[in-house]
Every structure is written in structure tokens, then in C-alpha cells.
Write a structure and sequence with these properties.
79 residues, alpha+beta, two-stranded antiparallel ribbon, 32% helix, 38% strand, elongated
């Protein structure tokens, strides 16, 4: 499974993707990495989280880390 998205902010455009590695494919494990792009009023935010493959639910932890980073930045307001 490949996860991808795009974001556009005026002249700035961003995109990204994450692929399941061969070891995960052989083991039947999900993609354990996560990322997000967001356009905020004062700029763009890119967050990348590498799931800890040796732990159960690593994929959920990586997604939660990305969401937490976005929430923290949003609560702080503009720099």
C-alpha cells in the first residue's frame, strides 16, 4: 500500500508518499510510517514519523505522533 497526498500553498506545492518495505510485505505487517502536510495561515507544516517496527501498533503510534505535532503547532499560533 502506498499512502500519498498533496498540498498546495500559493507557489509552494508539496507531496509525499510512504511505501511498505519488503520485510513488512513478507511478514504481513502494515506500513508503520506516517506523515502529513498542512497549510497553516502563517506557513506550511510537514511532519514525518517513523513507526517503531519492533512494537505492536507502531503504525498507530506514528499517525498519533503526526496528529500531535499538528495539534501542538496549531495551539501555539503563528511564530
Amino acid at each position: 500500500m502506498v499512502a500519498k497526498t498533496t498540498a498546495s500553498a500559493g507557489a509552494w506545492k508539496g507531496w509525499g508518499m510512504s511505501c511498505v518495505g519488503p520485510g513488512h510485505l513478507r511478514s504481513g505487517l502494515p506500513n508503520q510510517d506516517s506523515w502529513l502536510l498542512r497549510r497553516l495561515p502563517w506557513g506550511e507544516l510537514a511532519v514525518v514519523a517513523d513507526g517503531l517496527g519492533s512494537r505492536a501498533m507502531a503504525h498507530q503510534g506514528a499517525r498519533a505522533a503526526c496528529r500531535a505535532a499538528l495539534q501542538a503547532v496549531a495551539q501555539c499560533g503563528s511564530p
